[in-house]
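Pasting as-is:
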Amino acid sequence: MLINQPLLFQIQTKRVFPKPFLKWAGGKTQLLDQLTELFPKNISRYCEPFMGSAAVFWHIFSLREKEKIDFSLARLTDANAELVNAYCVVRDDVKALIEILLAHRKNHNKEYYYKIRALRLNGLSNIERAARFIYLNKTCFNGLYRVNRSGQFNVPMGSYKDPAIFDEDELMTASQALQNVELEVSDFRDTLQWAQAGDFIYLDPPYVPVSKTSSFTSYTEKPFGEREQKELFSLFCELDNLGCKVMLSNSWVDSMLELYKGFTCIEVKAPRAINSNSEKRGKISELVVINYAP
C-alpha cells in the first residue's frame, strides 16, 4: 500500500553581503570583476590605505564569506577624518546613526541641506558627524567629497527628486562586516609603520588628472598632487621590498606608466560617470599595477 508522504520544502535564505553605502568619485564597484582576477591567491591581512567607499574591501570580504579567498584580519585607513569616523560609527553605533539619518531623510530639502552643510563639526558628536557625512554624501552633487582649504565641505546640493540617503539593511550588514576591522585616520605615508610581509595592500589614491578639467583631488584640505604621487611610488617600492603584495590603481597616463615601468602594469576599462557632458561619459583606460604574479 502506498502511503502519501508529506512534501518537504527546504527554505533557503539568501545571504546578504555588504556593499558600499557611500557614493565616491573613483569608486571601484564597476571594476570588481576585473580586479578579482588579479587578486593574489594567498593573503594574510587585507589593508587599504585609501578606503573611500571601500568597494574592494566589501567585495573581498564577500569572497571570504563564500570561501573563495582567505585572510585573517583587515585594516582600513584614510586621511579623511570624517570618512573614517563614519565607518567607525557604522561599526560601533549603527542603530543610533540610523535614528539621526531618519530625521535627515524626513527633513530633506534645499534649505535643510545647506543648513546641515554649514554646521561646524566641533559642536557635533561622532554619531551626529557621521550622520551629517552620510546625508551630505547622498544628497550632494554627484556624491563628490570636496573641501576648501579650511577643511569645510563645499559641494552644492544635487538635483535628486527623492534621494534614498540610506538603506537600513545595508548599514546593518556593513556594521556586521566591519566588526574586528581596524579603522584609523592615517596618511598613506604611515603605512610602513604597520605593514608586514604577506599583507595584501590595495592603494587607490586620487588619480593623476587626465585633463585640466578632470582634477578631483581635494578629498581633504591637503590636495594630492605630483609630489604625493611620487611619494606613493616610493612607498610602493618599500612595500615591495618588505614582502607585501601590492596592487595600485591610477590613471592610464604616460607619467604613471613611466613611473611604474619596473612592475606589472595592466590596462583595465572603467566607466567614467563624472562629466558634465554626457556624451563624454563612457569607458576609459585605467592603470592597475601589481608586484606579484596573480
